[in-house]
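so my prof wants the structure for this chain in the tokens format not the other one, which i didnt know existed until like an hour ago. anyway here's the sequence
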Amino acid sequence: MSKDRARRRAAREARLAAERAVRLRRVARRERRRAVVRRLTPKLRRGRTGRLSRHTRGERTAIVLLTGVALAGIWSFVDDLALRLALVVLLLLVLPAIVVIALDRRT
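here's what i got, hopefully its the right format
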């Protein structure tokens, strides 16, 4: 009787070990496949990147609109063409500093 139970237990353990080995091979193959797919798919950047990413859409819109208003003001109120061009160039050079001073969040 106990030899029969031992034989059945050994058969059951052998079957469980074989099933466990099959499962481990399947999991390893799935992980290798996922690693290959992960390596081959391009990385998508989430969110905004670059210099303008620091500002919200509203702030960027305000920057563009106010710059446009300043350019329109320069072209409508200044008569001399050379002075117009000089003021436009000066505005475009000083604009990043104005944006940093007005919208910097580090303070």
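also thought this was worth mentioning. The CA atoms of residues 24 and 30 lie 10 Å apart.
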